[in-house]
Amino acid sequence: MWIADNWKDYEVIDTSCGEKLERWGKYLLVRPDPQVIWNTPKTNPGWKKRNGHYHRSSKGGGEWEFFNLPEEWSIHYKELTFHLKPFSFKHTGLFPEQATNWDWFSDIIKKANRPVKVLNLFAYTGGATLSAAKAGAAVTHVDASKGMVNWAKENAAASGLSDAPIRWLVDDCVKFVEREIRRGNTYDGIIMDPPSYGRGPKGEIWKIEESIYPFIELTTKLLSDDALFFLINSYTTGLQPAVLSYMINTTVVKKLGGHVEASEIGLPVSSNGLILPCGASGRWMRNS
């Protein structure tokens, strides 16, 4: 398992009864987590000292309950700064477990010793974009939500990356890739974090089980001849590491060689030293 264990401003403190107790900077949040199927005693005092608690509804969705929590605050990861705000469906605007992937491709970019172009698809609030830009890459950031792209721009400014070579695009990822292929553009690294289900700006429907393999095949056409890496992340239960590995092997490796690794990603739980699983990632990189 790949573990995001370099955080100082974030930690999973405890997990029990379908929920996780987390520290985001100096604030404690309790949020639901479908992986937490165990009912261990909630003895940690943080459970009662929470600043925010997301209660899931039996009818779907849910709502936040706040206890002295600001509307927005910031946390840091290494040299990056992220603005957080609780919003619908339990999220805060950041997936901390992704830091293990940020470290992986940042190291590749830094060691390339040449200009590196990176494409970040379904790019959300820009954690991967900022990490790649900080490592020295020119990044194209694509997300269908204007609000998320604006949030990512705010994170870039807070991280001192306002003048970094980042291209910000509000677009449907599939249509953007199709246009880039027609334009003849290529990238040295591609990152994608596709949703399980979503709609594009014009109502285009995305179902990951049906759409992901054709999309990987399509996106492979954008990899340069001397591409460095390809990363796909999934929070969909059916897309286990072996499935991600199989898809990348039959697309990217078939075209460029190299090798694939796939694994669960996770976060350490500070109260007991165990690891909370948080989805899976598949990574391709060129043979050195």
Question: What does the secondary structure layout of this molecule look like, with pairings?
Answer:
Layout: E1 2-3, E2 10-16, E3 19-24, E4 27-32, E5 52-56, E6 62-66, E7 73-77, E8 80-84, H1 99-112, E9 117-121, H2 127-134, E10 138-143, H3 146-158, E11 166-170, H4 173-183, E12 189-192, E13 197-199, E14 205-207, H5 208-220, E15 229-234, H6 241-256, E16 259-268, E17 275-285
Parallel strand pairs: 1-16, 4-5, 9-10, 9-12, 10-11, 12-15
Antiparallel strand pairs: 2-3, 3-4, 5-6, 7-8, 13-14, 15-17, 16-17
Helix pairs in contact: 1-2, 5-6
What does it look like?
The chain is an alpha/beta fold and 288 residues long. The protein folds into 2 domains: 7-84, Golgi alpha-mannosidase II (Immunoglobulin-like); 96-285, Rossmann fold. Helix content is 26%, strand content 33%. It has 6 helices and 17 strands. It has helices at 99-112, 127-134, 146-158, 173-183, 208-220, 241-256; strands at 2-3, 10-16, 19-24, 27-32, 52-56, 62-66, 73-77, 80-84, 117-121, 138-143, 166-170, 189-192, 197-199, 205-207, 229-234, 259-268, 275-285. The strands form 4 sheets. An 8-stranded mixed beta sheet has the order 1-16-17-15-12-9-10-11. Strands 2-3-4-5-6 form a 5-stranded mixed beta sheet, with no helix packed on it. Strand 2 (10-16) and strand 3 (19-24) form a beta hairpin. Helix 1 packs parallel to helix 2. The radius of gyration is 19 Å and the shape is globular. The two termini are 23 Å apart. 40% of the residues are buried.
